Amino acid sequence: SGLPKPSFGHLTQPFDTPEFHKLYRVVPIRKVHSLTITWALPPQEQYYRVKPLHYISWLVGHEGKGSVLSFLRKKFWALALYGGNGETGFEQNSTYSIFSISVTLTDEGYKHFYEVAHVVFQYLKMLQKRGPDQRQVIWEEIQKIEANEFHYQEQTDPVDYVENLCENMQLFQKEDFLTGDQLLFEYKPEV
Q1: pLDDT, tens only, 111-133
Q2: Fewer CB within 10 Å, N or C, the chain?
């Protein structure tokens, strides 16, 4: 209809309540121990060409020497770690962006629940202190990997492709309708 899409950017603190600054323990249906830390951040959708949360999740999710997961595995506290943002709908919109780190704990890791959380926060503090300036090589590596995945992706069902394209038309500039949800275009350390 030619109308501009609605913006909810004026709702800048959707989770500004004391209940969202707490630790919740939930008894799972299956026997699994998991620690999930979630942050509500300012909206990031305008940075789709930079994808800062994708970059941070890459660093947090790294499994090699010196990584959070490597350290937690050596202590026999964790089996897996995932960090990220789905970049769609609930997790990223004009009001906020969600960033989560989820750690699958061992029984021993569950006993050291607070230490595991402390390690995650220490790692994030280290990333913050060091800053992204030294990590352009990592960003370029991510960019190349995402470009390869984009160029060699399997053909999708036409209905799914059209649906994805229609969603992209609501989020990205015209030149990025086909690629904006998958590729990294610009390295901007300040973002």
Answers
A1: 999 999 999 999 999 999 988 76
A2: N
The b-or-e profile of 152-172 (16+ CB within 10 A means b, else e) is eeeeeeeeeeeebeeebeebb
| DSSP secondary structure of 24-69 | -----SSS-EEEEEEEEES--GGGTTT-HHHHHHHHHH--STTSHH
Q: What is the per-residue pLDDT across 44-101, written as a single tens digit (0 to 9) for each? A: 889 999 999 999 999 999 999 999 999 999 999 999 999 998 877 788 888 889 999 9
Q: State the pTM of this model.
A: 0.86
- How long is the chain? 191
Question: What are the sequence ranges of the domains in the chain?
Answer: 1-129, 132-190
Nearest to 153 by CA among 187, 185, 186, 181: 181
